[in-house]
């Protein structure tokens, strides 16, 4: 009897021994540990769609490398611990009220009810309480980054203009605006052999008495939309027909051109005024450039902050 009991006890001890799994610690950050399970679970999340992965720090990482390089992944998890330590130190933990408000915002943006959200998470194997914890941590990290980094970054107009000028082979982010008049000669038929001759005759008159340009325009221009003095309007560089811009851009104020051929006919231009103005393309790209400069500056500031905090922390990688 005693032998049977002893054998049973030994068997139980053996089974119990095999059931005990010790989770290996791969890194220590201050008083926090990163285990092999943390690494495994993060890798698993990377392979799943719609996984609960906070992107506050993920934007600085190569997703493919995270999935295939354990050392690289551990480094990422250390960065997360550093950021979370700053959250605790600055008492920026999210309240349940803030978490619930953010969840309401999420459901509103996606046009779904809270029940729909819970059902969707359940279908993906996510417990709602885990989702709440994830939202809370995401809010904490974003708030911490906003306080430490984002709020301190200011991109000036000078920086935007300098970036545009550098990348568009311009010295100042400015272009010339031309106020021009023209005397236009239109073809009266597909084989109007006298078209060029008419233009040459009037050009000779313009060259002889340039001050009479407006009078000659009124007398000879064939522009159906003729305005007084042959005024055509004001145009910025890049807005005009290339043939016309080529004929006008080399002129000085008050100067008239030779005959310029365009798809409309022949022109004799007069440059009334030439001024430097902001490049309209800069206006179109301003927000995009500002966002690009902000992202670059943010990355630099945040990485510097992380490195400084890591140098102050106790970090041990096994």
In brief:
This protein is of the alpha+beta class and 318 residues long.
Mean pLDDT over the full residue set: 87
Task: Output the CATH class name of the largest domain.
Answer: Mainly Alpha
Report helical residue fraction: 55-70%
Q: Specify the overall morphology.
A: elongated
Number of strands: 7
Strand order of the largest sheet: 4-3-6-5
Query: What fold name goes in the CATH topology slot of the largest domain?
Result: Triger factor/SurA peptide-binding fold
Major sheet size, sense and barrel closure: 4 strands, antiparallel
Unreliably modeled segments: 1-18
Number of helices: 12
The rounded Rg comes to 36 Å
Based on the structure given, which CATH architecture of the largest domain is correct? Orthogonal Bundle
CA-to-CA gap between the ends? 49 Å
Order of helices and strands: HEEHHHHHHHEHHEHEEHE
- Range of strand content: 15-25%
Total number of domains? 3
The structural class is alpha+beta
At the fourth level of CATH, the homologous superfamily of the largest domain is Porin chaperone SurA, peptide-binding domain
Jot down its keywords:
alpha+beta, Triger factor/SurA peptide-binding fold, 3 domains, disordered N terminus
Describe the overall structure.
The chain has three domains: 25-150, Porin chaperone SurA, peptide-binding domain (Triger factor/SurA peptide-binding fold, Orthogonal Bundle); 151-168 and 281-318; 174-278, Chitinase A, domain 3. It has helices at residues 2-19, 36-47, 63-68, 70-89, 96-109, 114-123, 128-148, 157-167, 195-208, 213-220, 242-249, 280-312, and strands spanning 25-29, 32-35, 174-185, 231-236, 256-261, 266-278, 315-317. β1 (25-29) and β2 (32-35) form a beta hairpin. Mean pLDDT is 87; it is low at 1-18. With 318 residues, it is of the alpha+beta class.
């Amino acid at each position: 009897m005693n032998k049977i009991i002893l054998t049973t006890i030994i068997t139980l001890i053996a089974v119990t021994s095999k059931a005990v799994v010790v989770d290996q610690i791969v890194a220590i950050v201050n008083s926090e540990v990163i285990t092999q399970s943390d690494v495994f679970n993060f890798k698993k999340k990377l392979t799943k769609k719609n996984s609960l992965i906070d992107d506050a720090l993920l934007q600085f990482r190569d997703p493919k490398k995270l999935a295939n390089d354990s050392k690289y992944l551990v480094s990422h998890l250390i960065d997360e611990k550093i950021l979370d330590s700053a959250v605790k130190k600055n008492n920026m933990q999210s309240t349940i009220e803030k978490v619930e408000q953010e969840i309401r915002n999420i459901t509103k943006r996606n046009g779904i009810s809270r029940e729909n959200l819970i059902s969707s998470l359940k279908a993906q194997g996510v417990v709602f309480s885990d989702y709440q914890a994830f939202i809370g941590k995401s809010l904490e990290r974003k708030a911490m980054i906003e306080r430490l980094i984002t709020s301190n970054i200011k991109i000036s107009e000078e920086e935007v203009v300098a970036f545009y000028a550098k990348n568009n082979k311009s010295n100042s982010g400015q272009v010339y605006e031309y106020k021009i008049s023209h005397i236009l000669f239109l073809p009266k038929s597909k084989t109007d052999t006298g078209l060029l001759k008419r233009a040459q005759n009037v050009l000779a008159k313009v060259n002889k008495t340039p001050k009479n340009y407006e009078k000659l325009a009124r007398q000879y221009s064939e522009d159906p939309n003729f305005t007084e003095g042959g005024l055509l309007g004001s145009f910025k560089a890049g807005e005009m027909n290339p043939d016309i811009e080529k004929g006008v851009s080399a002129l000085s104020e008050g100067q008239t051109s030779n005959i310029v051929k365009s798809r409309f006919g022949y022109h004799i231009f007069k440059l009334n005024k030439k001024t430097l103005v902001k490049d309209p393309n800069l206006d179109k790209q301003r927000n995009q450039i500002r966002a690009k400069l902000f992202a670059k500056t943010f990355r630099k500031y945040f990485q510097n902050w992380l490195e400084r905090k890591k140098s102050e922390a106790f970090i041990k990688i096994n």
